[in-house]
Amino acid sequence: MKSDIDALMKARNLDAIAIFGNAEHNPPMTYMTGGGHVSHATLIKKQGSDAILFHGDMERDEAAKSGLKLISYSNYDAQELFKKANGNGLLAGAMRAEMMFKDAGVTSGRVGVYGTYDLSAVFGMLSHLQKLAPAIEFVGEPREDSLFMRAMETKDETEVNRIRRMGEVTTSVVGKVRDYLTSCDVNKDEVLLKEDGSLLTVGDVHSKIRLWVAEHGAELPSGFIFAIGRDAGVPHSAGNPTDLMKLGQTIVFDIYPAEAGGGYYYDFTRTWSLGYATPEAQEIYDQVKEIFDTLNDNFDLNVPFKNYNQMTCEYYETKGHPTPLHTKAPVEGYVHSLGHGVGLNIHERPFSGFTAGDDERLSPGVVITSEPGLYYPEKGMGFRIEDTLWVRPDGKMETLADFPYDFVLPMKKWKK
C-alpha cells in the first residue's frame, strides 16, 4: 500500500524517488497524485519526506487536487535556462531538474526513476543531469519487482471498491453483448444478422463493445478481446473484424476496462458458443470450468500464487493437454499462467508463472485474476473463464463481480 513506500525505499537503499509524465495513464504518478489532468509533471519524494509535485501553471488547479506540496515550473526561468544551454532543450531541462531536486532536498544519493513518458526525452535529460549532479545515482528497477509494483500489490478498501465498481461496469457491458447476440436473426448458413439484414461481423460487435464501455464512463486503454473460431484459440488475438458471427463456434470475450483517465482496471473473461456447441467443444469447456471451480475451492491465505498454476498444469495434463509444466513454450493446450494481480496496471504482482517468487502470495489485500484456459487454434476453438478476486482482510476470497458461466447461449429467434 502507499503507506509502505518509505519502508520500501529504505529496504532498497533509495534516498529519493522521481516520477515523470502525466498524472493520467501513468500508474506510478496516478498512484501518488490520484490522477487528474496534470501533464508533463515531475514528482520527487525524498525518503521520510512528503512528495513534491512540480507542474505547469495552466494546470495548477488540477495539481492542487492531489493534496501534495506544489511547485510551479514557472519558478524556474525557462528562457534563461534555454539561453544558458545554448538552445539545447535537453540540457535546459536537466538544468531545471537539478534545481528541482535541490528544492526537494536531494543533492546526492540513489534516486529511483519511474513513470510513463517518452523514453528518448527522459534518457536524454537524465544523461545531462547525471553530469550536472554527479553525486546523484539514478536507479532503474525491473518492472515486475519495482518499488511501485510492491506497494501496489496490496489494496486498501477504497481501491478495492473502485475495482469492484469497474466490475459492475464490465458485467453490465458483457450482459449487453450477450443479450444483443442472442436476439439476432440467423440465416440459413447459421450466420447472425444485423437489424438491416446484413451479416454481423466481429468488427460490428467490437464497435458496440467500445460504445457501451464509453457510455458507462469507462475506457479501454489496453484494448479487449472478442474473438471467434480459430482466433479464440490464440489467447491474445483481439479478433479479426471481418470474421462472421456464426453459430456453434467458440467465442472468447476477455474485457478489461479501466476508470477514465487511466485509473483502476477490472479483468474478466467468458467463453460462449451461440445456439449449440460441438461435443468436443463442450467437453473441453467442461474441463476448463472444472479446474476453475476446483481452484476457487482451494485458494488459501498466504499460499504462493504459483502453486495454483502448478495445480492447473497437473490437472490439464491428466486430461491429455500440453502445459508449460512439461512442454517448453506450448502453443496449444494450456499456454499461459493462471493469473496476475490487477490494479492501476492490468498486470501487477502477484504473478503466478513458474518464475514468480515464493513471496508472491495470496496475502490479505491482494486482488488477482483466476483464468485457466485451453487453446486449439487448428481445431478452430479456444476457451477461457476469468474472474477477478479479492483476498479480504479476514482471509476469505471474494469474487468482485458475479456473472453466469453459461457456455451455450440459446438464440431467441433460432431453432436447430
Topology:
Layout: H1 5-11, E1 16-21, H2 27-33, E2 41-46, E3 52-55, H3 60-64, E4 69-72, H4 78-84, H5 89-103, E5 109-116, H6 119-132, E6 136-139, H7 147-152, H8 157-182, E7 185-186, E8 192-193, H9 202-215, E9 218-219, E10 224-228, E11 250-255, E12 258-259, E13 268-274, H10 279-298, H11 306-318, E14 367-370, E15 373-376, E16 381-384, E17 387-391, E18 397-399, E19 408-409
Parallel strand pairs: 1-5, 3-4, 5-6, 13-19
Antiparallel strand pairs: 1-2, 2-3, 7-8, 9-12, 10-11, 11-13, 14-17, 15-16, 17-18
Helix pairs in contact: 4-5, 5-6, 8-9
Structural class: alpha+beta
N-to-C SSE string, H for helix and E for strand: HEHEEHEHHEHEHHEEHEEEEEHHEEEEEE
Order of neighbouring strands in the sheet with most strands:
4-3-2-1-5-6
Mean pLDDT: 96
Structure description:
Helices cover 32% and strands 19% of the residues. With 416 residues, the protein is of the alpha+beta class. It has two domains: 2-143, Creatine Amidinohydrolase, Chain A, domain 1 (3-Layer(aba) Sandwich); 153-409, Creatine Amidinohydrolase (Alpha-Beta Complex). The strands form six sheets. A six-stranded mixed β-sheet has the order 4-3-2-1-5-6, with helices on both faces. It has a four-stranded mixed β-sheet with strand order 10-11-13-19, covered by helices on one side. A hairpin with a 5-residue loop joins strand 2 (41-46) and strand 3. Helix 4 (78-84) crosses helix 5, helix 5 (89-103) packs across helix 6 and helix 8 packs across helix 9. The radius of gyration is 25 Å and the shape is elongated. The termini are far apart. The model has no long low-confidence stretch (mean pLDDT 96).
